[in-house]
Design brief:
Layout: H1 10-23, H2 26-71, H3 75-82, E1 104-106, E2 109-111, H4 114-163
Antiparallel strand pairs: 1-2
């Protein structure tokens, strides 16, 4: 069954083939076929050789973008990957405690929501890293502010010396 509708008739196609054969020799046709085979073989080699690397690079880039979204506070991004149905903390739904936070204990154990458990795992697994990197961030900020203050003090001293 021919799925493509052709506007050319069989007679027109035969005419085109005969014209092409008169301009292109069998030797040239074999050479074109050889070039096309080489081209496709090279592309197949590249596909087989580099497909895994390309897929891993794309996965790495997407993971980085995802982590940036999560760290920027996109709770939907975090929830989508970790299967969290809702963003977080329990709040009361009754009359007296409506909207107020409360803890859910099941058989004497604190029950955490998915996002609470995720945050707990992140902090437990990387507490030193998070603490150390945050300390480095704050030290860097402090150094920058100290340099700015020193520069402003020097500028102020220079301005005062010009006035006196």
């Amino acid at each position: 069954m021919n799925l493509l509708k052709s506007t050319e008739t069989d007679a027109e196609m035969e005419k085109d083939e005969s014209v092409a054969k008169s301009f292109i020799s069998e030797k040239r046709i074999k050479k074109i076929r050889g070039e096309l085979k080489e081209l496709f073989d090279d592309e197949l080699f590249n596909l087989e050789d580099y497909a895994g690397q390309h897929i891993s690079e794309v996965a790495f880039q997407r993971a980085n973008r995802f982590i940036e979204r999560v760290l920027d506070g996109d709770i939907d991004a975090a929830g989508s990957i970790f299967g969290c149905d809702w963003p977080g903390r329990y709040v009361g739904t009754g009359f007296a405690d409506e909207g107020k936070p409360w803890a859910k204990l099941i058989h004497g154990n604190l029950n955490l929501t998915g996002t609470m458990a995720l945050r707990k795992k992140l902090v437990e697994a990387h507490a030193d890293l998070l603490t150390n990197e945050r300390i480095k961030d704050l030290e860097s900020i402090e150094d920058g502010l100290t340099q700015q203050v020193r520069k402003l003090e020097a500028d102020l001293k220079e301005c005062r010396s010009r006035i006196n």
